[in-house]
Write a structure and sequence with these properties.
The structure holds two protein chains of two kinds. Chain A is mainly α. Chain A is built from four helices and four strands, in the order ββαααββα. In chain A, a hairpin with a 2-residue loop joins strand 3 and strand 4. The longest helix of chain A is centred in the middle third of the chain and has 31 residues. Classes of the chains: A mainly alpha, B alpha+beta.
């Protein structure tokens, strides 16, 4: 906790000479732990790491596929190790969280107006969810047929 | 329901203290009393030195914003009964991330300087003479920016935004939303003048879309939405600058002018 020095106030501030003893609270390194919404935000930001992890995993899978049946079998046994399974489950949950927050962002960033009225947010987000379900069903059908 | 409730109020005297401390006061709980009424009651009956800002008592002047139990709130719209029912005390602090002048009063000149920087007024370079009549606007054109025009500069959104706390040069939610309010106004041609301040690392690109500004806004302005919308506009302008280098778009109003 330190008393603010006038120079710490950004340019454009006036009257600093007359207020030398403003109190300015330092932001804690753990600011994101104090509030549920902040924690949710940090987890959302962190989710991008797991999205990247899945991308890297897919690239390695493609490389193994290209290298022949033995390489692919090795890669599969790597995926079957408990550590990788747990990691993938965590990554999957983060990716789902990432997708949901991303879809919900769309109505804020792109308000759609029809006949001068703003279309309700859930209708703007809905096509993304519909596409998501449709593609998931299609991929599921491809894998299990 | 409790007859009385304890208010823990942050006190800071620049003459005496190096940092704030809390002082407790017991106040009666009346059904119609808000936190601001309780503060007035304390100032009138217990401690006349208690310092805070207030004016209209009806959510329009935007001066009574404070942290109430860690949440940025207009104290004129925060009822004691909501806390008394939960049996909790009420902790009142000055709005987070602002320098504190005294007790619950924050220093606003940094915010006001940032607000001025984004030119939140109608810019109309070739304004026709008054004799030609007023600017006309359709209800549809009004609807495009009306939500953003409801801002009362209460700065609750600044106290809610962690980016404001971590990066003091960030222009901040209210100023960016107000800039967008003018950008979207069909009478305004200043979007080109504002873009340099807005499409800047300290402007919209400083925003990480935590979304708390929108959640705490007592006037439902949706600053987070305004900023994300402007991010889209800024990207399109950036792309346009490739297609039309040194084009006319930076000289006149461009992007979201609402001329439809």
């Amino acid at each position: 906790m330190a008393v603010a020095k006038p120079e710490t106030i950004s340019a454009g501030t006036r009257y600093t000479d007359f207020h030398p003893r403003w109190y300015r609270r330092r932001v804690s390194v753990y600011w994101w732990l104090g509030q549920r919404q902040y924690l949710k935000f940090i987890l959302r930001e962190l989710s991008s790491v797991f999205v990247a992890l899945f991308v890297v995993e897919t690239l390695f899978q493609l490389a193994a596929l290209k290298s022949g049946p033995q390489a692919y079998a090795d890669f599969q046994s790597f995926l079957e190790s408990p550590f990788v399974i747990v990691l993938n489950i965590i990554a999957f949950l983060f990716v789902v969280f990432h997708a949901i927050t991303w879809f919900n962002l769309a109505p804020s960033a792109m308000p759609v107006r029809l006949g001068g009225k703003r279309v309700p947010d859930f209708l703007v987000a809905a096509p993304s969810y519909v596409m998501w379900v449709a593609i998931s069903v299609f991929v599921g059908w491809m894998v299990t047929r | 329901m409790a007859e009385t409730i304890i208010l823990e109020i942050a006190r800071y005297s620049p003459e005496r203290d190096t940092e704030p401390h809390f002082q407790s006061f017991e106040v009666p709980v009346h059904k119609e009393w808000v936190v601001l009424d309780a503060l007035n009651h304390i100032k009138d009956t217990a401690d006349g030195t208690l310092t805070y800002r207030w004016s209209c008592r009806m959510g329009i002047c935007g001066s009574c914003g404070m942290m109430v139990n860690g949440e940025p709130k207009l104290t004129c719209a925060t009822f004691l009964t909501d806390y008394a029912q939960k049996g909790s005390n009420i902790r009142v602090e000055p709005l987070r991330y602002f320098p504190v002048v005294r007790d619950l009063v924050t220093e606003l000149s940094d915010f006001l300087a940032k607000l001025k920087k984004v030119k939140p007024w109608l810019i109309h370079p070739n304004q026709p003479p008054l004799s030609q009549g007023e600017f006309l606007q359709t209800p549809t054109q009004l609807e495009r920016y009306k939500q953003f025009s409801m801002c009362i500069n209460c700065t609750l959104c600044y106290a809610a935004c962690p980016v404001v706390g971590l990066d003091p040069t960030f222009v901040g939610p209210a100023a960016l939303a107000l800039a967008q309010r003018y950008n979207m106004d069909s009478r305004d041609q200043g979007a080109g003048e504002r873009i340099e301040e807005l499409a800047h690392p300290d402007g919209i690109w400083g925003c990480t879309f935590v979304g708390e500004c929108t959640r705490v806004c007592p006037k439902h302005v949706d600053p987070a939405g305004a900023i994300q919308q402007y991010k889209l506009t800024a990207v399109l302008e950036w792309l346009k600058s490739f297609v039309m280098p040194r084009g006319e778009e930076t000289k006149h109003g461009s992007g979201e002018t609402g001329n439809d």
